[in-house]
Specification:
The chain is mainly alpha-helical. The protein has two domains: 5-180, no CATH class; 182-297, no CATH class. The protein has helices spanning 5-26, 42-64, 67-74, 79-82, 86-94, 131-140, 151-168, 185-192, 200-209, 224-241, 243-246, 250-260, 286-297, and strands spanning 101-103, 178-180, 182-183, 212-216, 276-280. Strands 3-4-5 form a three-stranded mixed beta sheet. Strands 1-2 form a two-stranded antiparallel ribbon. Helix 2 (42-64) crosses helix 5. The longest helix has 23 residues, at 42-64.
């Protein structure tokens, strides 16, 4: 039996949710706080192994979607050779090491490290080993490496799996534990509009950390031409009437948006628009945002 893409999506997400429920169940026996991050057990070892096996399966499916994979298949390269550098290929394509998520579960009592956004693919334990090394140690010599199967490694293993599921199908990525870091539309629009208000590299670094980003849902609007023209006028109003507001630093803009849901209090705020999408961030940068904006405003 060959699974359809829809079946694969449901299966991957079902397995992820099962693993997530298992981690939540562990809170009955382990208090999830900083003091217990180094706790290790056989159950945690098994959990880490299963997360990583599942992660490798999704990485293969993600790589099968690439032009590079199709090119290698057409050249007659074996599947073993194609997937030889699977982790590196997927990590580079999606910039996985920089992607950040946050824990939202109210039964995880972290007040320091994991109370802020963190990068599961950039995790290293106290010995400097990342998740792939921990996984291989447990797979090949579990008894002598059981101490590496910590609660912290388990959380990061599941967090990495959450990110991979999000990229495989972001509509199936609801979680009872994690939430993706999301790039807000105002700062990336200001940078993409080429206003010289925000350093390009700073905004690119911000985008590299975000698993998703907000973007105008123009295609679905009934009066598309009117909305685009109105958006142009409102951007011009913003440039002339709100220079002080848009001259803030990126951190100040993000703080303002998080606190008040807008950059400034004005009926002509260009971001009070009918709707926007939250899309998976696959290599977005100031340049790609600028190109998308130019396409919209030239219509």
């Amino acid at each position: 039996m060959v699974a359809t893409p829809e079946e694969k999506e449901r299966i991957f997400f079902q397995i992820y949710r099962n693993l997530e429920n298992e981690l939540i169940k562990m809170t009955d026996s382990i208090h999830f706080c900083e003091d217990n991050l180094e706790v290790f057990s056989i159950n945690l070892a098994t959990f880490i192994l299963r997360c990583n096996v599942e992660g490798e399966s999704i990485m293969k499916e993600l790589y099968r979607r690439t032009d590079e994979y199709n090119k290698q298949v057409s050249q007659g390269i074996s599947q073993k050779d194609i997937f030889e550098k699977l982790r590196d290929n997927i990590s580079n394509k999606y910039k996985l090491r920089t992607k950040k998520i946050r824990i939202f579960s109210n039964i995880f009592y972290f007040k320091e490290k994991y109370s802020e956004d963190f990068s599961p693919f950039d995790y290293k334990d106290s010995h400097g080993e990342n998740i792939p090394k921990i996984y291989n140690s447990l797979k090949h010599d579990r008894a002598n490496n059981l101490h590496k199967a910590t609660l912290e490694a388990a959380i990061n293993s599941l967090g990495a799996l959450f990110i991979l599921n999000y990229y495989y199908n972001h509509t199936h990525a609801d979680s009872n534990i994690f939430g993706p870091k999301k790039a807000l539309i105002e700062p990336i629009l200001l940078a993409g509009y080429d206003l010289d208000k925000l350093p390009v590299e700073e905004v690119n670094s911000y985008l590299d950390e975000c698993l998703s980003y907000e973007w105008f849902q123009i295609e679905s609007w009934e009066h598309k031409e009117y909305v685009i023209e109105n958006l142009k006028n409102q951007i011009e109003h913003m440039l002339t009437a709100h220079t002080e507001d848009i001259n803030r630093s990126l951190d100040e803009l993000l703080s303002m948006r998080s606190r008040y849901q807008s950059l400034f209090d004005d009926f002509n705020n260009p971001f009070f628009i009918p709707s926007y999408d939250v899309l998976p961030n696959i290599g977005e940068s100031v340049q790609t945002i600028k190109q998308k904006l130019e396409i919209h405003l030239s219509q």
